[in-house]
Amino acid sequence: MRLEQFNAGHFPMIKEWWKGHDHPDLPIEIMPDIGVLSYGEDGKPLAFGVLYAANSASIGWIEWITTNPECTPFESYKGVSTVLDFLCKEAKDVGISWVLCTCRQKSLGRLLIKNGFAQTDENVSHFLKLITTK
């Protein structure tokens, strides 16, 4: 399994993945500096996720986890597990003690639990609002 730091060149592919999973389109401006993609041994891109770090509390937020829609369930499992592991280690390295992750897919919820996360809520919606433009 290989990891690659997320950059703007990856974004068109990530947007296609989101589209393939009926996820709303998001602007690149909201992507944080810490993002990663996992790749299979054959070089196939498998999964993506990012880490936001709070500036006033010891908590981070792992979000926008998605997989290549062409992945098998096993490839998705391995790819997301690798992304989660990396982002949790990155969080620890920057002094974050807690990480929060939200999801709508039951399979991702089960994977989060397998990776040490505790479910704290269910049936939650997320809302995004643009408050300023540059």
> Major sheet: order of its strands?
1-2-3-4-5
Q: What is the H-and-E element order?
A: EHEEEHEH
Q: What is the beta-strand fraction?
A: 15-25%
Contiguous low-pLDDT stretches (5 residues minimum) are: none
Distance between the termini: 38 Å
Rg: 14 Å
Q: Assign the structural class, choosing from mainly alpha, mainly beta, alpha/beta, alpha+beta, or little secondary structure.
A: alpha+beta
Looking at the overall shape, the CATH architecture is 3-Layer(aba) Sandwich
- What is the overall number of helices? 3
CATH topology: Aminopeptidase
Brief write-up:
The chain is of the alpha+beta class. It has a single domain (about 1-115), classed as Gcn5-related N-acetyltransferase (GNAT) (Aminopeptidase, 3-Layer(aba) Sandwich).
Provide keyphrases for this structure.
alpha+beta, about 25% strand, about 130 residues, Aminopeptidase, 3 helices
Structure characterization notes:
This protein is of the alpha+beta class and 134 residues long. The chain has one domain: Aminopeptidase, CATH 3.40.630.30. It has helices spanning 11-20, 73-93, 106-114, and strands at residues 2-5, 34-39, 45-53, 59-67, 98-101. The N and C termini lie far apart (38 Å).
Summarize the SSE layout with pairings.
Layout: E1 2-5, H1 11-20, E2 34-39, E3 45-53, E4 59-67, H2 73-93, E5 98-101, H3 106-114
Parallel strand pairs: 4-5
Antiparallel strand pairs: 1-2, 2-3, 3-4
